[in-house]
Specification:
This protein is an alpha/beta fold and 332 residues long. 61% of the residues lie in helices and 11% in strands.
Length: 332
């Protein structure tokens, strides 16, 4: 491709106007002024432009110290499997170039768009990295990152979820995100709900978990919502230490469900204690139990039984009295 571009450009340099074409063109003061400028022969200037264009499309060797990291990323742990990549580059060299973009401001000259693991491997070996370098805005960089990694790598469910929300933050619409991530809108909706309802600190603590599918993350989201835990530090404290991602996630779900059951049990016990407080008639106990619009009167001794019969006889009067008071209160 570069040879074709160079050959085409050189052929254009060799195309000089014929004498008849030159005579047909009226003299121009502007052209005459240009030919008098000390900028060098036109052919050399054009050759320089061609070489610059070819160079911009070719991979270059870049010192890894000149490359800054970027917040634009779609994977959590770039060190995952890095030892194997280092061994491969030592044995066969770096086959696929990374993509960098020019960086503005002080510091390193370039910023990584994609190829973090290859850069990390070359940095570990102590060699420059093969890189393509482009002028790119953040939106274009995200598109390149999404397309390159979607074609070559398999992101985990949660990496897809977090990256989808990041694309949305940069103004990509749903159709664009579905196209970039190669997912349908139903899957995108599931990704978004998990990334929105599970705190990012919890996600990062658990890890990318390529062996964790969609269902466990949805279960975690539901457990968090059911537990109504708003403090991220509480969730982080529930995650088992030094466990692989799947076990860490499962451990958090178990802890949340245990907390939910414990809370419900405490509430039920408190409600039971409140509605089961014994009342007495004289020195005889009568137990009233109120539950969901019902009152149960429990009595075992004869005196209390007489009270229940007395209450039954007077229930119509009690109801009439209560109704009169209620209607009277409404009228006033």
């Amino acid at each position: 491709m570069r040879r074709d571009l160079l050959a085409k450009s050189l052929s254009q340099l060799n195309e000089e106007p014929s004498p008849s074409e030159a005579l047909a063109q009226p003299p121009s003061p502007i052209v005459e002024e240009k030919t008098k400028t000390p900028s060098g022969p036109k052919s050399l200037q054009a050759m320089s432009n061609v070489l610059s264009q070819v160079s911009s499309q070719a991979a270059q060797m870049v010192d890894t110290r000149e490359i800054a990291d970027s917040a634009l990323q779609d994977r959590f742990d770039t060190n995952d499997g890095l030892d194997d990549l280092i061994a491969s580059i030592r044995a066969s060299g770096q086959e696929i170039p990374v993509l960098l973009r020019y960086r503005r401001g002080a510091g390193q000259r370039y910023e990584v768009v994609y190829g973090r693991r290859r850069i990390a491997a070359c940095r570990e070996i102590g060699i420059p990295v093969r890189a393509l370098i482009r002028e790119m805005e953040e939106r274009d960089a995200l598109m390149s990152l999404a397309r390159e990694n979607s074609a070559r790598l398999q992101r985990s469910f949660i990496e897809q979820a977090v990256f989808a929300t990041r694309l949305e933050e940069y103004g990509f619409d749903k159709d664009e995100i579905c196209g970039l991530l190669a997912v349908d809108k139903t899957t995108l909706s599931r990704l978004a709900t998990v990334a929105r309802d599970v705190p990012i600190a919890v996600i990062e603590r658990i890890g990318s978990g390529h062996d964790i599918g969609r269902r466990p993350w949805l279960d975690l989201r539901k457990a968090i919502k059911d537990a109504d835990v708003l403090d991220t530090s509480q969730l982080l404290a529930m995650i088992p230490d030094e466990e692989p991602p799947l076990k860490a996630l499962q451990g958090l779900i178990v802890a949340l469900r245990t907390a939910i059951l414990s809370e419900k049990a405490q509430q039920q016990e408190a409600a039971r204690a409140t509605r089961s407080e014994p009342l007495t008639v004289g020195d005889k106990p009568v137990r009233f139990v109120k539950k969901r619009g019902k009152i149960t009167i429990e009595a075992t001794e004869e005196y209390a039984t007489d009270f229940i019969e007395y209450l039954e006889d007077r229930l119509p009067q009690i109801l009439d009295s209560w109704s009169s008071e209620l209607l009277g209160g409404q009228k006033s």
